[in-house]
Design goal:
- A 7-stranded parallel β-sheet has the order 3-2-1-4-5-6-7, with helices on both faces.
- The protein folds into 2 domains: about 200 residues, 3-Layer(aba) Sandwich (Rossmann fold), CATH 3.40.50.720; about 35 residues.
- The chain is globular, with a radius of gyration of 17 Å.
- Helix content is about 45%, strand content about 15%.
- The chain is α/β, with parallel strands linked by helices.
- The longest helix has 26 residues.
Length: about 250
């Protein structure tokens, strides 16, 4: 306990399964946390479940809108006193369909959240961290390292996160800003329920079983599996690690 004592943390996608679980773990480790998400009610609900663990700030914002990003960064900085750790985690899955059937508007929506939102978060948080340094963890996916048929917009966006991570780490190193990415296999959250239903509308349970068979450990990850890795990258234990891609995938990419 205490691995993040007095660290000031911002988590985007804070109302989702991975974001909320990571916030809970961070609070237990001594951090002060600001949760960012589009849905104010969902944020409030998550914050209520976390209150017993420590200080939580909630900020409703659209991560794909630069004015909103500037606002959430400034509000987090004002309320927490600065930003030491940024979990750049917000993302959407898009529509499940063959590439030739994907709609341009759906592709653009995924790219807006998963790439522009990631870029804007990096841009404005790195400005804030430029004087004192910090750790940034970007959420990609195993789909950012390999193919996942039926999810072309998502795969494209998650590959882009690798490029943003590498360039961000190269440019941030001089200010002691570390930037790494995490690459989960399917995780037992709302997103996978959506993908399962999109893959087999008539039998989502069968789709889940098929996805699980692709994981050598035979199961989906749980949000805490990802949160534990993010904790390591956020902590001083990883202070010589930057520009790296960390898989948490049950052996899926081996």
């Amino acid at each position: 306990m205490g691995r993040l004592d007095n660290k000031r943390v911002v988590i985007t996608g804070g109302a989702g399964g991975i974001g909320a679980e990571t916030a809970k773990l961070f609070l237990k480790e001594g951090a002060k946390v600001a949760l960012v998400d589009l849905d104010q009610d969902a944020l409030n609900n998550v914050a209520e479940t976390l209150e017993e663990h420590g200080k939580v700030v909630v900020i409703a914002a659209d991560v794909s809108d630069e004015a909103d990003v500037e606002r959430y960064v400034q509000e987090a900085k004002d309320k927490l006193g600065g930003i030491d750790v940024f979990f750049n985690n917000a993302g959407i899955e898009g529509t499940v369909a063959p590439l030739i059937e994907q709609k341009v508007e759906d592709f653009d929506k995924v790219m807006a959240v998963n790439v522009r939102g990631m870029f804007l978060g990096l841009k404005h948080v790195m400005k804030t961290m430029s004087e004192s340094g910090g750790s940034i963890i970007n959420t990609s996916s195993v789909a950012g390292l390999s193919a996942s048929p039926g999810l072309t917009p998502y795969v494209t966006s998650k590959h882009a996160v690798v490029g943003l991570t590498r360039n961000g780490s190269a440019e941030g190193a001089g200010q002691n800003i570390r930037v790494n990415s995490v690459h989960p296999a399917p995780v037992n959250t709302r997103m996978m329920r959506s993908i399962e239903k999109g893959s087999k509308p008539e039998d989502a349970a069968a789709a889940k079983a098929e996805y699980e068979k692709r994981v050598p450990l035979g199961r989906y990850g749980e949000p805490n599996d990802v949160a534990q890795l993010v904790l390591f990258l956020a902590s001083d234990e990883s202070n010589f690690i930057t520009g790296a891609q960390y898989v948490v995938d049950g052996g899926m990419t081996t």
